[in-house]
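Q: I'm building a small set of examples for a reading group on sequence design. Run inverse folding on the following structure and report the sequence directly after it, with nothing in between.
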C-alpha cells in the first residue's frame, strides 16, 4: 500500500475536483496537474478552460490522455504532488482508442506502477456504478471497467474519499 496516494470518487458536479485541489494545495509541495481530458467538442473545451481558470497558475500542467503510467513515472518525485484528473476520462480515451488492447495495457501499466511512485499522487474519478445498467455495450463496458479499476486502485492506496454535495466521506484511511 502506498501511503502517499489518495483516490477521490464522486458523481458529476459532486465537488471531487475541488476537494482534490484542496488536498494538493495542503500538501505544500509543488503540484503537477496531470489532465486526461481531450477537448474534442466545444462543451468539453469550455469545461477544460473552466478547470484551468480555477487552478493556481503556478501549478504545472501535463496533458496525457492515454499513457498515464508513463507520465506518472516521468513526473513523480519524492517532493512533489501529482493530481490526476480524471481516471474515467482516461478510461474513455483508452476504450475509444484505435488499438484494441489499449485499455488492458494501460490499466496494467498503471496498477504495476502505483507502488513504485515516490511522490504524493491524488487520483480523481467518477463513481458511475450507482445507476442503472446501461443499454449499450460500450456503456456497459465503461461502467464495468471503471468499477474494477476503482476496486484495484482502492486496494493499493492509503486513502479513499467519496465526495457527495461537496462533502467528503472517508471510505478508507490509515490516518488516526
Amino acid at each position: 500500500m502506498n501511503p502517499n496516494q489518495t483516490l477521490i470518487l464522486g458523481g458529476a458536479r459532486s465537488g471531487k475536483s475541488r476537494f482534490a485541489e484542496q488536498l494538493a494545495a495542503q500538501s505544500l509541495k509543488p503540484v503537477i496537474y496531470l489532465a486526461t481530458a481531450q477537448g474534442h467538442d466545444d462543451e468539453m473545451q469550455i469545461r477544460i478552460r473552466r478547470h484551468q481558470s480555477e487552478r493556481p497558475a503556478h501549478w504545472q500542467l501535463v496533458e496525457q490522455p492515454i499513457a498515464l503510467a508513463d507520465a506518472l513515472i516521468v513526473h513523480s518525485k519524492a517532493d512533489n504532488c501529482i493530481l490526476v484528473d480524471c481516471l474515467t476520462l482516461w478510461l474513455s480515451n483508452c476504450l475509444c482508442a484505435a488499438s484494441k488492447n489499449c485499455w488492458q495495457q494501460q490499466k496494467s501499466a498503471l496498477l504495476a506502477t502505483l507502488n513504485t511512485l515516490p511522490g504524493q499522487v491524488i487520483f480523481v474519478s467518477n463513481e458511475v456504478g450507482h445507476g442503472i445498467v446501461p443499454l449499450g455495450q460500450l456503456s456497459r463496458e465503461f461502467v464495468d471497467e471503471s468499477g474494477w479499476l476503482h476496486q484495484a486502485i482502492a486496494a493499493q492506496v492509503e486513502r479513499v474519499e467519496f465526495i457527495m454535495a461537496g462533502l467528503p466521506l472517508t471510505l478508507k484511511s490509515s490516518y488516526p
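Strands lie at 2-10, 31-35, 60-63, 81-85, 120-126, 157-164, 167-172.
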